[in-house]
């Protein structure tokens, strides 16, 4: 069995490289057929310069969709073979532009004839296939421009890993984990305050026995995240102590914890969920907005020095 048949679309990039190498090798035969001293990789740059002299390397790179460095290298090779030259732009002396030399201009008519013949031959080639590769490549390039392959792979990976995350209720045996997770992020950005230590050292007394709740996230049997709901007046809860271990970030655990806390508040018939944060915590604020919170300016005085933003989410009853 061919390797690519065995592994399938996973090796799409490798198979495209194999096809590219096959096409490039056969393209060299085509140039030999026309007795043209020309490298296939030069074609896009030379063609654009011949059609529209006076473009810069950057402009050529943009039109071809290649890097500036790659196009610059091709221009240098064409220059060494006496086919193009670079000179100062007429309207802007700080700008180098590329034009054909007399030798390049003499080569251009023969290259045009070859190009027309290749166009007819490749059109016929595509008609022999069930799927039009040229159109499919355009669709694929468009799809990758909208969302890169890396981001697509990351989404699949995160979805798989997220399935291994479980949200569980707090147990006294997890107090050290609860404290560790929160001390880790607080000390990274700020300093521990007395209100932190009271809740982290005695969560039963300061959270659970006051009709609050603590949720934890496990990943591969380890406690990697925490979130608390603190009971407030007027049928409201404060979302607090939301923390995710750096080793487990990027798996959507913060969102799962936040959503689980909101579901819990909803089940408790809460009308409102409130939180305090700091504008330095960009990722946390993005998460809160994603969960549906919005900034308020009339919140209660905070017991934390680091608090400089308050948010709330009104729940439907």
Automatic annotation (TrEMBL):
Chain ranges of the HTH marR-type domain: 9-149
UniProt source species: Hymenobacter citatus
Keyword terms: Transferase
PANTHER family given in the database record: GNAT FAMILY N-ACETYLTRANSFERASE, LD18367P
Domain (N-acetyltransferase): residue spans on this chain: 176-316
Keyword presence, Heme: no
Full protein name: MarR family transcriptional regulator
Domain of life: Bacteria
SMART domains cross-referenced by the UniProt entry: HTH_MARR (SM00347)
């Amino acid at each position: 069995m061919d390797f690519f048949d065995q592994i399938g679309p996973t090796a799409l990039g490798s198979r495209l490289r194999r096809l590219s190498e096959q096409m490039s090798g056969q393209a060299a035969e085509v140039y030999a057929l026309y007795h043209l001293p020309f490298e296939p990789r030069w074609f896009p740059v030379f063609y654009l310069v011949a059609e529209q002299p006076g473009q810069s390397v950057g402009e050529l790179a943009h039109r071809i969709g290649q890097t500036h460095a790659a196009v610059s290298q091709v221009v240098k090779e064409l220059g060494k073979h006496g086919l193009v030259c670079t000179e100062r732009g007429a309207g802007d002396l700080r700008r180098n532009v590329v034009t054909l030399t007399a030798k390049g201009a003499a080569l251009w008519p023969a290259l045009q004839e070859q190009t027309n013949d290749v166009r007819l031959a490749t059109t016929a080639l595509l008609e022999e296939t069930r799927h039009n590769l040229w159109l499919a490549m355009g669709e694929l390039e468009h799809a990758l421009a909208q969302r890169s392959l890396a981001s697509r792979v990351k989404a699949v990976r995160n979805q798989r890993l997220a399935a291994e995350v479980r949200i569980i209720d707090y147990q006294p045996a997890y107090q050290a984990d609860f404290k560790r997770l929160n001390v880790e992020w607080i000390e990274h950005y700020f300093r521990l305050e007395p209100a932190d230590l009271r809740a982290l050292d005695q969560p039963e007394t300061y959270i659970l026995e006051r009709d609050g709740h603590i949720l934890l996230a496990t990943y591969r049997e380890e406690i990697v995240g925490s979130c608390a709901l603190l009971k407030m007046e007027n049928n409201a809860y404060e979302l607090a102590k939301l923390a995710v271990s750096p080793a487990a970030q990027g798996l959507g655990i913060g969102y799962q914890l936040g959503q689980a806390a909101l579901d819990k508040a909803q089940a408790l018939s809460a009308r409102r969920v409130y939180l305090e944060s700091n504008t330095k915590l960009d990722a946390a604020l993005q998460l809160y907005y994603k969960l549906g919170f919005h900034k308020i300016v009339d919140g209660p005085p905070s017991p934390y020095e680091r608090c400089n933003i308050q948010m709330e989410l009104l729940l439907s009853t």
